[in-house]
Design a protein that fits this description.
InterPro entries: NAD(P)-bd_dom_sf, Sc_DH/Rdtase_CS, SDR_fam. One of its GO terms (biological process) is prostaglandin metabolic process. The structure is a single chain. The protein is α/β, with parallel strands linked by helices. It has helices at about 15-25, 40-55, 70-80, 100-120, 150-170, 195-200, 205-215, 220-235; strands spanning about 5-10, 30-35, 60, 85-90, 130-135, 175-185, 240-245, 250-255. Strand 5, helix 5 (about 150-170) and strand 6 (about 175-185) form a beta-alpha-beta unit. Helix 1 crosses helix 8, helix 3 runs parallel beside helix 4 (about 100-120) and helix 4 runs parallel beside helix 5 (about 150-170). It starts with 6 loop residues before the first strand and ends in an 11-residue tail after the last strand.
Length: about 260
């Protein structure tokens, strides 16, 4: 599948990884619904992109992804405006160990809900034309992230759900490929959250330890995350894949030693 002429919906689109993903999709010829909670950042993002790509290629939708009706409405507006939906990137995420329920709501529940709403529009069983879904997890979803236990749990959940629903899509002939992208530390505003006691709670005292981990692993530029995303979109052979991106190895995949292949 190639992005040219396709319609994408990206959550958390206004800055950081989301912004990088939007830019590469526009470069590849897609039209995009920019879904973000922050109206100021969202509109600034759209204006900036419109200068380069034209206003007809983007649609900004303010949306709290934890609100089911708002999220459903974002998909509805996207399809009404562009006429279709081909690519979904569930990217919105937070790090908040103090308000840990919010972390689960944003990082996991909204990803599950977004995937299901996306399938309602794209699945061939529902009259859709197929497509691809990429759920953004993290290396913290493959190894325990010390001092961020709930963030880690949410990202583990994204991987488990995405692999399972990818298998269901294959069995059910949905025509939709579902893959997961797991970056290490990325140079985004999310990194700054470790400096805030009101976000880190009892783990705030370990902020220097987390900074040490960042120094050890290195910080990725969002552009390489966008490159990984395009690989997942364009390789029609990938379904249920878990892509990892690190400074040491670049783009590579998690090798699950005992893959589960359900019987049809």
């Amino acid at each position: 599948m190639y992005a040219n002429g396709k319609v994408a919906l990206v959550t958390g689109a206004a800055q950081g990884i989301g912004r990088a993903l939007v830019e590469v999709l526009l470069e590849k010829g897609a039209a995009i619904a920019l879904v973000d909670l922050n109206p100021v950042a969202g509109l600034e993002c759209k204006v900036s992109l419109d200068t380069q790509y034209g206003s007809h290629r983007t649609l900004f939708i303010q949306c709290d992804v934890t609100d089911e009706e708002q999220l459903k409405d974002a998909f509805k507006k996207t399809v009404e405006h562009f006429g279709r939906l081909d690519i979904l990137v569930n990217n919105a995420g937070v790090n908040n160990e103090k308000d840990w329920e919010k972390t689960i709501q944003v990082n996991l529940i909204s990803v599950i809900r977004g995937t299901y709403i996306g399938l309602e529009h794209m699945s061939k069983n529902n009259g859709g034309e197929g497509g691809t879904i990429i759920n953004i997890s993290s290396l913290a979803g493959l190894m325990p992230a010390a001092y961020q236990p709930v963030y880690s749990a949410s990202k583990f959940g994204v991987i488990g759900f995405s692999r399972a629903i990818a298998a269901a899509s294959h069995i059910g002939n949905y025509g939709v490929r579902i893959n997961t992208l797991c970056p290490a530390f990325v140079d985004t505003p999310l990194l700054e959250s470790i400096e805030k006691e009101e976000i880190m709670g009892e783990y705030y005292k370990y902020k220097d330890n987390i900074k040490g981990m960042m120094k050890s692993y290195g910080i990725l530029d969002p552009s390489i995350i966008a490159e990984g995303l395009m690989n997942l979109i364009e390789d029609d052979g990938l379904n249920g894949a878990v892509m990892k991106i690190t400074t040491s190895k670049g783009i590579h995949f998690e090798d699950f030693s005992t893959p589960y292949t359900p019987k049809v």
